[in-house]
Amino acid sequence: MRTFACALLIGVAPLAARAEVAAADPIDAAMRTCLARSDMSSTAGQVQCMETARIGWKTALDNAWQQLQAELPPARRKQWQKSQASWQASRDAETQLLAAVFATTRGTMYVLAEADMQLQPVRDRALALRSAVAKTSAGGGDPAGRLRACRADARCEHAMFDLNRYYRRLQAKMPARSRPTLTRAQKAWTAYLNATTPLVDERGRIDIIGARVATLKRLSETVGND
């Protein structure tokens, strides 16, 4: 079980560049140590290791957010506040979606997978905010130039195609009673994307969409599994 959990946590992060930045982060190191402990080898123990890491990353997120607020000019601060509020709303809706999907599964591996999917978005957002703090402190907080429309960016258009494909697949496989939960989660995520796009460059937009594609793909491959 420890081998599975370690592979899950180390290999799932969708944003490789950010994962590399945080490879030596004390939160990740502590989590790996926790997962490897013989007294934490039960499912409950492994979930506890991940939950402790999630709490640690949430604290890191909050700290980075406070630092960013102190660095930003008022107009830019309002944009970031909108992004952060929409991210939190998306996470709240996503928690309900994860509960609905994993309620259709059975087995220890899915308990661990759900804990991991609660952790990773918090970690990713903390790293994104840390990056924004570093750029703002260095005088480079604004994205370079105006973003092209997604339909004019081949990578963005392809990513959105994949997103819609996996969304439809997940929708078709979910129990009918749970489909409104998926609709709400996707609507909240879209609001987050729209609020955050003005704050990132085209690569940053692809990162956000790519992470969502990975989530929907994973959930579509999970729902209904025994």
Automatic annotation (TrEMBL):
This protein's record includes keyword Signal: yes
Keywords annotated in UniProt: Signal
Residues in Lysozyme inhibitor LprI-like N-terminal domain copies: 36-129, 152-197
Residues making up the signal peptide according to the UniProt record: 1-19
Superkingdom of this protein's organism: Bacteria
Name this protein carries in UniProt: Lysozyme inhibitor LprI family protein
